[in-house]
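wait is this the right file?? whatever heres the structure
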């Protein structure tokens, strides 16, 4: 059920009593918009270029424009759609690589960066379409958004950090998934080893293959609370939160 009304001035009004809004749109709107007001029956938001780009960095898998189209009572004003499409087209032109490098895909934008005195105070080297900088990336982001209307896309690392606690010790391991994190500890941990594999999965030593070890990792993940106190994933912004299985 549609719960949003979008005005030509980029204001979004959401009906608090609408279950779809509270269940499916509430969090996303707070990623892509500025919160203006929360009254008894209506929540009000404003879309800005900065809030839109922040949302694209925070929840990149969401097609926010399509989400608005699917949940708006009336047709979205044409000026809003035009500007949102323009905001979206700017995202990804500049991408952060590592901790100190920006990759620029557009030659005109690259030229504008080279001519911007505020940016060049923080840039120490150019190499083709790569820009190496020192200083606060958030400051650079603000300059790029305000002066060039072009944001930085932050690449989300596929490698995550996991903390495993077995009640006696805890260890930090980096991997692309929880089961691969456990596999890196195989043979090095008092629970994640061949002896426990054979005992828990009823395998003979001669039958243990890499596929069996992978199945053992999946078994441990499925039964994580039986064998460990907890497994915690360290989020990209360094705030810890429990991984749920």
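ok assuming it is, sequence goes like this
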């Amino acid at each position: 059920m549609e719960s949003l009304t979008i005005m030509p001035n980029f204001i979004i009004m959401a009906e608090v009593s609408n279950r779809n809004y509270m269940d499916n749109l509430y969090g996303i709107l707070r990623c892509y918009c500025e919160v203006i007001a929360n009254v008894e029956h209506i929540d009000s938001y404003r879309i800005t270029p900065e809030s839109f780009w922040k949302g694209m960095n925070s929840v990149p898998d969401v097609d926010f424009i399509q989400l608005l189209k699917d949940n708006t009572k009336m047709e979205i004003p044409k000026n809003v759609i035009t500007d949102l499409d323009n905001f979206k087209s700017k995202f990804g032109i500049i991408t952060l690589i590592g901790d100190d490098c920006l990759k620029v895909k557009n030659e005109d934008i690259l030229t504008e960066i080279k001519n911007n005195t505020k940016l060049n105070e923080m840039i120490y080297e150019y190499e083709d379409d790569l820009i190496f900088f020192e200083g606060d990336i958030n400051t650079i982001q603000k300059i790029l958004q305000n002066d060039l209307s072009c944001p930085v896309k932050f690449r989300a690392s596929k490698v995550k950090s996991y903390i495993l606690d077995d009640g006696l010790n805890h260890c930090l391991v980096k991997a692309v998934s929880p089961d691969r994190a456990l596999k890196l500890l195989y043979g090095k941990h008092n629970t994640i080893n061949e002896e426990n594999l054979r005992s828990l999965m009823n395998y003979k030593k001669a039958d243990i293959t890499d596929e069996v070890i992978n199945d053992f990792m999946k078994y441990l993940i499925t039964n994580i609370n039986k064998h460990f106190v907890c497994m915690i994933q360290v989020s990209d912004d360094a705030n810890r939160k429990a991984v749920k299985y």
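Residues 19-32 form the longest helix (14 residues). so i think its the right one actually
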